[in-house]
Amino acid sequence: MRPVAAIDTTDQSAASIGRARSTLIKRLSDLVCLPESRISPVERHMSGDLLMDILREAEPVLREKCAKRVAALGDAPPLLLRMLAVDKIEIAAPVLEKSVSISDADLVAASMHGGFQHRLLIAKRKQVSELLAEELTSHAEADVAKALLRNPKARLSNRSLESLVELTRAHTDLCSFLLARPELRPSQGLTLFWWANSEDRKRIFLRFSVDRVLMQETASDVFEMVVAENWQDPLARKAMQFIERRQRNRAAIDKSPYDSLEGAIDAAVVKMDANIAGEISYLSGIKPITGARILADTGGEAVAILCKATGLKRDYLGKLWVAMRRCTLEELQSDPGFDRVQYIFDTMSSNKAQTVLRYWNWALSSSLSSDLRRRIRDNDVGDVSELSVSERSAALVFGSRV
User: Fold this and answer.
1) How far is 348 from 201, CA to CA, in rounded Å?
2) Is residue 177's pLDDT more than 50?
3) Cα radius of gyration (the chain)
4) What is the largest CA-CA distance in the chain?
5) How many C-beta atoms lie closer than 10 Å to residue 223's C-beta?
6) Rounded to an integer, what distance in angstroms lies between the CA atom of residue 25 and that of residue 149?
7) Closest by CA position to 183, among listed 167, 213, 159, 215
8) Domain spans of the chain?
9) Does pLDDT of 96 surpass 90?
């Protein structure tokens, strides 16, 4: 019996080889796509391994056809899905958009090793886990963040939210989308305030300003203990300064060259300087660095909070506005900026304004050590996940200001 002659591939045309490759890919794809009743898991995955090996070197059009087929499978070979998910976006799109069998780990890999378009499609998937959201937000891409925030099925961890809050500094249009998320915490919302627009600021106050009644009732006996200890415990002092009802600093009033907070504001109308601004802060029961941030706020709503929380009358809101050189006394009633500020003053209760002011003071000054100031100034904060809530707020709000 004569041996079978070896096939001389040199005589084969490129078109013939292409047809064979295309046919083989189609047949292997058929096997991979068979229902569970027709093929065992072992044979399916073996077929998938062979298919994946061929597809690595195959033309993009063949990979695209395969991606469209396996994207609809409920039990597609994982390695094949992973390979297709990081391919060119035209090939990866069906898998990223429709595959229900691709794992979170493979989607994370696609986000890491794919491009912006890969991440945008992943953010729009019907289900986005917390782990996957963390990977997506780590790239600080505004359009991906917007798609994720608009996705009601996306689950956002605290780490994702912190990344998104930081991103809103450069992309303030994201604030409204972030404020629509139920996961957003008070610390994040009240930090977001500093660069949000006027409408979003109203939403922040409406959502995160509370009267602290339960806190005050719970800690009512603790206040006497802290006073008996002469406020020596720094941790208890920071917490109780947030909880207590009294806003103005009586000790500062006794030491002040002015008779009252109102007297300091009257002096500021004549000439506002750093010393008077610091005095206004001390008399209001806040640290000068918090007061400086409030007085420098471009929108002005923070000034309304300061005045309402300290029990100032409406005319002193106007005086402080004039002292800040936002307008003259004659222009006050026609100034649209003051109208906006006066609206916040009129609609916010004193208790709720105190909560916001005290939170700002706690978040912006309680952990602002000289070391953190230096790191913020040098843009060397390090791993922000290791910072406390107040440290992170200070780092975000002050940035290069400190």
Assistant:
1) 12
2) yes
3) 31
4) 120
5) 16
6) 39
7) 159
8) 14-99, 214-366
9) yes
